[in-house]
Sequence to fold (547 residues):
Amino acid sequence: MHAIPMSIAVPLNTLSAGLILICAFAMVGTRQVRGVVRFYVVQSLLLAASSFVLASAEHSIDLWALGAIAVGAKALANPWVLRKMLSRDLYARREIVQVINVPASLLVALLLAIAAELLIGPLAKASGDPVIAVNLPIGLACVLIGAYSLASRREAIPQLVGILAMENGAFFAGIGIAPDLPIIAELAIAIDVVLIVLIVGLLTRDIKRRMGITAAGTLRELKEEPLSWR
Amino acid sequence: MRLSIAYNLLQILFVLAFAPLYAGVLSRMKEIVQSKRGPSIFQPYRDLWKLFHKDEVVSSEATWIFRVTPYLVFVTPLFVTTLIPVLTNYPLAFAFMGDMLAGGFFLGLGGFFAALAAVDTGNPYGPMGASRTRMVGFLAEPVFMIVFFTVSFVAQSTIPYIVQQKWVENPASFFSPDHVLLLVAFLMLILAEGGKIPVDNPTGHFELAMIDESKGLEFSGRGAALMKWGGQMKFLVLACIFLNVLLAPWGLAHGREIGAVLTAVPWILLKILLFAIVLVVIETSLSKLRLFRISEFLGAAFIVSVSAMIVSIFVGR
Fold:
């Protein structure tokens, strides 16, 4: 198989970086649960594409495996687990309640992206590597935007997707700065992510069964009940 | 110099001749996607012909603004055509008279008079549509500005021909994230300015829901024809800026002889056809937004354009 020359791999990587940033904004701007999950899948696929391209250019077996993990764990396993456990909630065309409305949220996300660029842009540029110069700021921006949507959403599933989006951002920065991280570490992270989805999903299902809602923002009081509800 | 002016006139002719065809192809394709047959792609020409041969009725309340507006709406896209690369790769005679911002302001002038004329006659639906168009307009304005600031960051110029050269000479910057974000923002801007579906329904005939259409309700005869033709040309000009300057700066004429310029015509038409397919997909797969969601749509476009700018500053070259 022919390796992609670096001169083509770098622009392709930057292209997917731009699209990944758009996906992060779209996850903040979408109102429906299903739309948020869909953009998460698209972002994961872009992540995988970027790591495949870099793998081919840098002849790195680790990056091939990383891309495969991204496709398998993020684009396939996570939505599948979510759908299995929470099909009703996930596919209800319900609008997500947010603390801050969508346009203001988008502006906050923009400010976070600017902050990410300001914080890490000079450092990333100083490295002189064109991949790092793109991946590090955009990865950090995705982490911050994910953290924001985790904080501002009042529903369990979108909060979960916020965690996953943060992980995607860290992953994207990771393939830039440490392309040959031991494969075992990456595998552990990937399995962790699926486990997080599983655990949060189970918890949400339980909350739903007991309370009838999954709006995490309205759950404020601790209820002591005998475990007779099963 | 004389040749250059001739080619400029040729570009104007191109826009004049193919703007109705573009509208016809677009509506025909949309009907086909919805498994209907739809009118012929030449129907807009027939409509214009019919309207030009009808009598014009003008309200007795109307002032000179109402009479002047159709001509302004018709002429402003033609002015913009002289500034942008429609057929040729090299600057023509009037290319340095104004930059992209000037083009935007020309189109804005037409829109401004159209809104004034809608208020002018006292028809209740006109001012409603005009105020909605202004709402979309002032939300679209910052996106427009930021897009062109970003372009001027990247290309060190806002003259469309120079910007286009920048992307032809340097394919690497073509894939840069700032360029991709810029394209997305400009596409959203075209959808809003052209009254396309997530913002406005161009085929809707229900006055209360109209945004762009209701401004032209009061016009008849020649005025209606000019307004219609002007609107179609405005959309074609925006598509030309998007395609020839930003998205796909290929297929334009390089040579200075007439043959080269004429062979560019089918290529440009092909590009516009492909763009029309994308538009039809967007228009049939989305539904029209509620009026107060439009601010979210354009807010998203603004966010995308600003992130294009910051990415171009920090990540860029």
